[in-house]
From TrEMBL, chain A:
Sequence ranges of Acidic residues compositional bias: 63-73
Compositionally biased spans, kind Low complexity: 187-197
Protein name listed in UniProt: HBS1-like protein
Keywords: Cytoplasm, GTP-binding, Hydrolase, Nucleotide-binding, Phosphoprotein, Protein biosynthesis, Translation regulation
Domain Tr-type G: 241-464
Phylogenetic classification of the source organism: Eukaryota, Metazoa, Ecdysozoa, Arthropoda, Hexapoda
Organism: Drosophila rhopaloa
Bias type Basic and acidic residues, positions: 74-83
InterPro entries found in the cross-reference section: EFTu-like_2, GTP-eEF1A_C, HBS1-like_N, HBS1-like_N_sf, P-loop_NTPase, T_Tr_GTP-bd_dom, TRAFAC_GTPase_members, Transl_B-barrel_sf
GO MF annotation: an example: GTP binding
GO CC term, one of those recorded: cytoplasm
Region of interest called Disordered, as start-end residue ranges on this chain: 60-86, 155-208
Catalysed transformations (reactions): GTP + H2O = GDP + phosphate + H(+)
One Pfam family here: GTP_EFTU_D2
Subcellular locations according to the entry: Cytoplasm
Automatic annotation (TrEMBL), chain B:
UniProt-listed NCBIfam families: pelota (TIGR00111)
Entry annotated with the keyword Membrane: no
Name of the molecule in the record: Protein pelota homolog
Gene Ontology CC, one term: cytoplasm
GO MF entries: metal ion binding
Keyword Lyase (UniProt): no
Role played: Component of the Pelota-HBS1L complex, a complex that recognizes stalled ribosomes and triggers the No-Go Decay (NGD) pathway. In the Pelota-HBS1L complex, pelo recognizes ribosomes stalled at the 3' end of an mRNA and engages stalled ribosomes by destabilizing mRNA in the mRNA channel.
Lineage: Eukaryota, Metazoa, Ecdysozoa, Arthropoda, Hexapoda
Species whose genome carries this gene: Drosophila rhopaloa
Cell compartments where the protein resides: Cytoplasm
Length: 666, 394
């Protein structure tokens, strides 16, 4: 046998096949393994068993860590509580009731309350919304005070957080599904817990658990495993302006690109020279009004046709923020591009054409004003700035402005936007009125004294970033970089990614190491949730990476599946959804053909009760639990686990027919 | 397909001699032949001879064999039908009961004997032998970075090639990468058309896409054709037709076939007819749900009340191995026809047929509303789903 074999990665079963018969000696002679290695890698049942059983018997009533630690730990606990909490075993109807109940409660109390708490309370009161909410909210207010005084309580005797070898087993209550960053990962004993190993003990674990427990097979560097994301974030980003991604949406020809182009020009992001060039060239084509749009519409095709086709990206800095502008195409055929852009956005700017007839056509059924607004809402954008554009064409009429605002207000309320999160601003993208400076036009100033566009952007709140969660990054573009290999660009949805980190790519779970990280053309050493980055991954098979796949943390890889259950809300559809209905599934930037393979239950929209089991078809505006099957395996997360990655859109023949949340993964 | 001889007695037992002429006929043969039938055809068999001294020689012999079919394999891409079974007529080379696999070949006749011919099978022969039914259309559905080159024949939609290229997005300062990627993609699609589309047979080539991809591609293709002197493209320029589709995935072919311009050009082809019928079903389900039903149980109940006006049924149901189940479906079709209803048998190789197969494989439009069906609980869904499931293996 050659010395140059890579012994570590060898498939021993193959090697040993028939080997002994020929040479007649045992394997150990050939491949020695040191006792320490053996200890590290071989499963020793006795050891694991002993430690855990000893632990259980000695510590019947373990204090939760939260009691003896500060708020940080309390947060940790709450997080763990909702993540690793396993749903009680229920039949389908109960499950449906429960999940809708939980969602409902969530919408009221937000993420502050753990999932376990909600589930337990819901079961207690048999899904009666009123009672559940009362109970939870009362409890919250009660517990708020003692929590504050609890900080100084001295440490309890049990300290599972210590790194000594005797007690790295967490309290048995905690499922190892979601290993906590901190101590667990570094110790190679992870599989030694009989709960997850499942090698000799036939413990019944769902597919989800299997995929997660296999996590420990991928090894990462100690540094990566032990990293404290929050600290790192504070260290790196403390002195920087916060980032925000804003998508500009609206009906075709509402003036989105022009508005953005003009804004970029006014904020000094486009040089005079370039602008002059655009002016000259657009004049030549007889389309001078497109000169600002050309800043973002760069391809020849887009310029020649005068419409945006793919999402254009650009960046401006305001007083407190760095804003990434995503200029979405408005044309109906390019909604897939718009969706992939919107999945990266935190906030949205809805541009409406105030010209008579134009607003109406965009707002009618089938117009993109409607569809875009609903789409971004179902993709999780909840702050919206409405820009009433081209108001100069109607002589800055206040009447027209209020007319449009009233119409939009009632519609946006229906679509699920809170009134406080929506603002209305009149402006003109072409003349630049009310963009970066307060209104000058006397016709406008006579009745309008509100903020200008830049202020509106400035006023957007920065959403909370899930930096502490395991890494998830969705790929939106693959291109050839300047150096070797190819670049993958996308948005970090959760977690943190550093240089030289090991990551898993896509459904094939190929391992790769991060060679370089750039954000807006500047090299970085670490990037955080919410950032738009380019990653270079060398030695990766390009065929394994597609637009829409997810890059994840090796310790907690993303579930890969072809079949999952989702709770969907059906929009206005021409034909009803039945079993076997072929749809296009949009998930982040991914577009994948899928089939609705089972209609599990029809749910009441507001109460979440099961109206009908196994309905024949789903009509307009219904809400239902369905199962979807894709032809290729995809990376997807439950909505309860990762909000960002648990949302899906279903489209058929260029029309969005439903939006949904993933409830179960097969 | 050519019908060379047919003998079916009163008990519906008998044999038929057929000669497949084109690849599509293999599909018909696949739908005709069921397990338990006997097929007689010429084939090549490797025969081993042992001499008295014990040395053996093997030779390949062309001989005619009759086998009792035990399993059927159909390769959709190559359109090859393989039948495996035991020999039931001994000859000088092959013993009784020896296994043999028959590869049905084009332009070689075969004789098919069934213990019982039903109307569906006889109709299938009629349809296969009707020359007017054949109309070939090529279709390219594409979007940026994804294209399917398909051939649509009377009863099959064959995906000849799927092209997937990741095209870099436009980004500040590097528009060239995007445009280069696009050009590469168009080149691949064009090569695929040149390779897979036989312009002697194909009546028209549909190019469908969202946005302007089709126009861009069309321009690119003919620019290249002039440059590189692709005579075949230039000669057939009139056959190309640009249509709108919402995406480049296979099932947007359905939209293409519904386009009025396309319908005008290829009216009365089976593919377009099926799409229309399924669309009608969905429309009815939306407007009057009590008049549209799917699933075996509901449809059988509706048939009992002679309520069915149009029955949509997927041909994969007739390919099932269970003789009784097949008989049940045949009876259903006959009873609907007797009651004056219309029966549309969908080819499971078409897009609409695929969808119907997923939708339990059977659906009906009724003459009058039967709301009572809706209330009866639907436990047969599992069964129906199982029926739909075996279409996947095709």
């Amino acid at each position: 046998m050659s010395r140059h074999r890579i012994v570590r990665t060898m498939d021993y079963n193959d090697e040993y096949d028939g080997y002994d018969d020929i040479y007649g000696h045992s394997v150990e002679d050939e491949h020695c393994i040191s006792p320490t290695d053996a200890q590290q890698w071989l499963y020793d049942r006795a050891r694991g068993q002993q430690s855990i059983s000893a632990f259980i018997s000695k510590n019947k009533d373990i204090q939760e860590e939260e009691d003896d630690e500060d708020e940080d730990a309390a947060f940790e606990k709450a997080r763990r509580d909702s993540e690793s909490f396993q749903m009680p075993q229920l039949d389908e109807i109960e499950q449906a009731k429960l999940s809708s109940c939980v969602d409902e409660v969530r919408s009221v109390v937000g993420d502050a309350v753990s999932e376990r708490r909600i589930v337990e309370t819901s079961m207690k009161f048999e899904y009666d919304m009123q009672k559940i909410l009362d109970e939870i909210l009362n409890e919250e207010t009660k517990s708020a005070k003692p929590a504050a005084s609890r900080i100084k309580v001295p440490a309890a005797p049990v300290l599972p957080k210590s790194s000594s070898k005797t007690a790295p087993t967490p309290p048995p209550k905690i499922n190892l599904k979601e290993p906590r960053r901190g101590f667990e990962i570094a110790s190679p004993k992870v599989p030694s817990s009989p709960v997850v190993s499942g090698r000799n003990t036939p413990v019944d674990i769902g597919g989800d658990d299997i995929s997660r427990s296999s996590a420990s097979l991928f090894k990462v560097s100690k540094e990566q495993a032990l990293r404290n994301a929050r600290q790192l974030y504070e260290k790196e980003r403390a002195d920087q302006k916060s980032h925000i991604h804003m998508i500009v949406i609206g009906h075709v020809d509402a003036g989105k690109s022009t508005l953005m182009g003009h804004l970029l020009y006014d904020t000094g992001n486009v040089s005079q020279r370039v602008m002059h060039k655009h002016e000259q060239e657009s004049k030549k084509l007889g389309k001078q009004s497109f000169m600002y749009a050309w800043v973002l519409d760069e391809t020849g095709e887009e310029r020649a046709r005068g419409i945006t086709m793919d999402v254009g990206q650009s960046r401006i800095e305001t007083k407190t923020k760095i804003v990434t502008l995503l200029d979405a195409p408005g044309h109906k055929d390019f909604i897939p591009n718009m969706i992939s852009g919107a999945t990266q956005a935190d906030v949205a700017l809805l541009v409406v054409d105030a010209t008579r007839g134009e607003f109406e056509s965009g707002f009618e059924l089938g117009g993109q004003t409607r569809e875009h607004a609903i789409l971004v809402r179902s993709l999780g954008v909840n702050q919206l700035g409405v820009i009433i554009n081209k108001l100069d064409t109607v002589g800055w009429s206040q009447e027209r402005f209020t007319e449009i605002v009233t119409k939009l207000k009632s519609f946006l309320k229906q679509a699920g936007f809170k009134e406080s999160d929506v603002s209305f601003t009149p402006c003109s993208g072409l003349t630049g009125e009310n963009l970066t400076k307060n209104a000058q036009e006397s016709a406008l100033t006579s009745w309008y004294s509100g903020p200008h566009l830049l202020d509106v952007i400035e006023n957007f709140k920065i959403p909370e970033r899930a930096i502490d969660r395991p890494l998830r990054m969705s790929v939106s573009d693959i291109y050839k970089g300047t150096g070797s290999g190819f670049c993958i660009s996308g948005r970090v949805e959760t977690g943190v990614l550093c240089l030289n980190d090991k990551v898993l790519v896509g459904a094939s779970r190929e391992q790769a190491q991060v060679k370089s990280l750039t954000m807006n053309e500047f090299p970085q050493t670490s990037v955080f949730a919410g950032d738009q980055v380019s990653v270079t991954l060398p030695a990766l098979d390009i065929n394994n990476v597609t637009v829409g796949c997810i890059i994840s943390d090796p310790q907690t890889p993303i579930p890969v599946t072809t079949r999952f259950q989702a709770r969907i809300i059906v929009f206005n559809v021409k034909v009803p959804i039945t079993m076997g209905f072929p749809v296009l599934l949009h998930h982040q930037s991914l577009i994948e053909p899928a089939v609705v393979c089972k209609l599990t239950a029809l749910i009441h929209k507001s109460t979440g009760e099961v109206v009908k089991k196994k309905p024949r078809c789903l009509g307009n505006n219904s809400c239902a639990l369905v199962e979807l099957e894709t032809s290729r395996p995809i990376c997807i997360e439950r909505y309860a686990d990762f909000k960002e990655l648990g949302r899906v859109m279903l489209r058929v023949a260029g029309v969005t027919i439903a939006a949904g949340m993933v409830t179960k993964i097969r | 397909m050519k019908l060379l001889g047919k003998y079916v007695d009163k008990g519906m037992q008998g044999n038929v001699t057929l000669m497949p002429e084109e690849s599509e006929d293999m599909w018909h043969a696949y739908n005709l032949i069921a397990e338990g039938d006997s097929v007689r055809s010429t084939t090549i068999r490797k025969v081993q001879n042992e001499t008295a001294t014990g040395s053996s020689t093997s030779s390949r012999v062309r001989t005619t064999l009759t086998i009792a079919v035990e399993s059927i394999d159909f390769d959709t891409q190559a359109c090859v039908l393989r039948l495996k079974g035991r020999n039931i007529e001994e000859n000088q080379y092959v013993k009784m009961g020896a296994y043999h696999t028959l590869d049905l070949e084009l332009n070689r006749k075969f004789e098919l004997r069934k213990p019982e011919w039903d109307t569906i099978a006889l109709e299938r022969i009629e349809m296969a032998c009707d020359p007017t039914q054949s109309a070939d259309v090529a279709a390219v559905v594409m979007q940026e970075g994804l294209a399917h080159v398909c051939l649509i024949t009377a009863s099959m939609t064959l995906v000849r090639s799927k092209i997937e290229v990741s095209i870099p997005r436009k980004r500040k300062g590097s528009v060239q990468q995007h445009e280069k990627g696009l050009a590469k993609f168009y080149e691949q699609v064009m090569q695929s058309i040149l390779r897979h589309v036989n312009f002697d047979v194909v009546k028209c080539v549909l190019i469908a896409s969202p946005g302007f991809v089709r126009d861009q591609f069309y321009d690119y293709m003919f620019q290249q054709a002039v440059k590189m002197d692709y005579k075949i493209l230039l000669d057939n320029k009139s056959k190309f037709m640009l249509v709108h589709a919402s995406s480049g995935f296979k099932h947007s072919l359905k939209e293409v076939l519904q386009d009025p311009a396309v319908l005008a050009k290829m009216s009365d082809t089976k593919a377009a007819g099926e799409v229309k019928a399924l669309e009608q079903f969905y429309m009815l389900l939306q407007c009057e749900p009590a008049k549209a039903f799917y699933g075996k149980k509901h449809v059988l109940q509706a048939a009992e009340s002679q309520a069915i006006e149009t029955l949509l049924i997927s041909d994969n149901l007739f390919r099932c191995q269970d003789v009784n189940l097949r008989k049940e479906y045949v009876n259903l079709v006959e009873s609907v026809r007797d009651a004056g209803g219309e029966v549309k048998i969908f080819s499971s190789m078409h897009i609409s047929g695929e969808q119907l197969a997923q939708l339990t494989g059977i659906a009906a439009l009724l003459r009058f509303p039967m709301p009572e069906l809706e209330d009866s609980d639907d436990d047969d869904d599992e069964e129906g789903a199982a029926g739909g499931a075996d279409s996947d293996s095709d």
